[in-house]
Amino acid sequence: EPEVTQTPSHQVTQMGQEVILRCVPISNHLYFYWYRQILGQKVEFLVSFYNNEISEKSEIFDDQFSVERPDGSNFTLKIRSTKLEDSAMYFCASSSGQGSYEQYFGPGTRLTVT
Amino acid sequence: DQQVKQNSPSLSVQEGRISILNCDYTNSMFDYFLWYKKYPAEGPTFLISISSIKDKNEDGRFTVFLNKSAKHLSLHIVPSQPGDSAVYFCAASAGNYGQNFVFGPGTRLSVLP
């Protein structure tokens, strides 16, 4: 069964460093998303992406964040200058956009900023 | 502002009995709802969905009920199995492609053998 994959599973970085989290959405899906979950808190929406541009973003998704689909399969989230409070699980999701709204999630990347 | 609420942080149920997980929402623009199950260190797994034009959707052991006037939905799992032990999230959106889902805080279900 097709699934969303994410790499790395765990990323440790120092405050102020740039990180890139990678995702491979389900191949025939058209909509891509990033969510995050800070330990002990809710899953929060960051950004959605369609047709090579951002379709919606939350207040969390400020200028430090960017997304890209560099090729036909990968979808990346870049954090330009990480802060301690960026430590969280980051989940990528995708949806087909063809008759259903269900979003399918990857296993997540645990980002630890020290 | 909690647009999606799951007021029970945890629930314990005996194996074989029914589990009922509840979710309330405040935003009347929401018209599409999903339930996800999440194990530790894994991403949310889609379980079942319902659109506001329905009041019930069933898939195997899982049934979701929607009461739009009360802005309330519930997930019924019957019979409950130990493998169902996980955190269950209710998520809601306005039902457009690309629309983000707003998640509730989750309910931890423990199914006791």
Write up this protein:
The complex is a heterodimer of chains A (114) and B (113). With 114 residues, chain A is mainly beta. Chain A has no helices and 11 strands. Chain A has strands at 5-7, 10-13, 19-24, 31-37, 43-50, 53-57, 65-68, 75-79, 88-95, 104-105, 109-113. In chain A, strands 2, 4, 5, 6, 9, 10 and 11 form a 7-stranded mixed beta sheet that branches. A 4-stranded antiparallel beta sheet of chain A has the order 1-3-8-7, with no helix packed on it. In chain A, a hairpin with a 5-residue loop joins strand 4 (31-37) and strand 5 (43-50). The radius of gyration of chain A is 13 Å and the shape is globular. The mean pLDDT of chain A is 93. Chain B is mainly β and 113 residues long. Helix content of chain B is 0%, strand content 53%. Chain B contains no helices and 11 strands. In chain B, strands 2, 4, 5, 9, 10 and 11 form a 6-stranded mixed beta sheet that branches. In chain B, strands 1-3-8-7-6 form a 5-stranded antiparallel beta sheet, with no helix packed on it. In chain B, strand 7 and strand 8 (72-77) form a beta hairpin. Chain B starts with a strand and ends with a strand. Chain A binds chain B through residues 4, 6, 30-31, 33, 35, 41-45, 48, 50, 55-56, 58, 91, 93, 95, 97, 100-108, and chain B through 32, 34, 36, 41-46, 49, 89, 91, 93, 95-106.
N-end to C-end Cα span of chain A: 37 Å
Low-confidence stretches of chain A: none
- Name the chain pair whose interface involves the most residues: A-B, 29 and 25 residues
Strand percentage of chain A lies at over 45%
Number of strands of chain B: 11
Helix content of chain B: under 10%
Main sheet overview of chain B = 6 strands, mixed
What sequence of helices (H) and strands (E) makes up the elements of chain B? EEEEEEEEEEE
> Which structural class do the helices and strands of chain B define?
mainly beta
Number of helices of chain A: 0
Rg calculated over all Cα atoms of chain B:
13 Å
Overall pLDDT confidence of chain B: 93
Largest sheet of chain A: 7 strands, mixed
Percent strand of chain B: over 45%
Helix content of chain A: under 10%
